[in-house]
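Most newcomers find our protein records easier to grasp once they have seen one. There is nothing in a record beyond a sequence line and a structure line. Getting from the letters to the tokens is the skill we practise here. An example says more than a description, so a record of this kind follows:
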Amino acid sequence: MLDELTELLDTAIYKEIASEALYNAAQGKTDDPGAKALLKELAAEEKGHQSRLKKLKDKSFNKHDWHREKVADLKISDYVSGGETLEGAGLQDTLIFAMKKEQGSVEFYSKMMGALVDENAKRVCEGLVHDELKHKLRLETLYDDLFYKGD
């Protein structure tokens, strides 16, 4: 496996480990049952992402297994305020925090993709961007369903 791809996968695995730890720790910082349930679910997803990335790192890489359907971007995280901390956060602020965190990951992997030379690493990075967009869409859809008070 090429060094650039290995470094990318190591970085992605580290980001997933840090996110899982963040969401696990935040469960003890809120009394809101909805927020706790969401944080538990988010931590489990991050653990699953780690496992997927570790498997990808352990096998020789020729093609990625991401499906590249178009992912909508509701851009809710661009327009909502709040969610700066998970300390004492309710469900709404927890969702905002998570949406913004996913957007940050989209931006991180997008920038990484532009800096990479190895085509396999670029494809993995593109897949990571796609995955983060899907996570963001799920969170934004949930936010929209729960908190949007339309006309």
About this structure: The helical segments are 3-26, 33-58, 76-79, 91-115, 119-147. The chain has five helices and no strands.
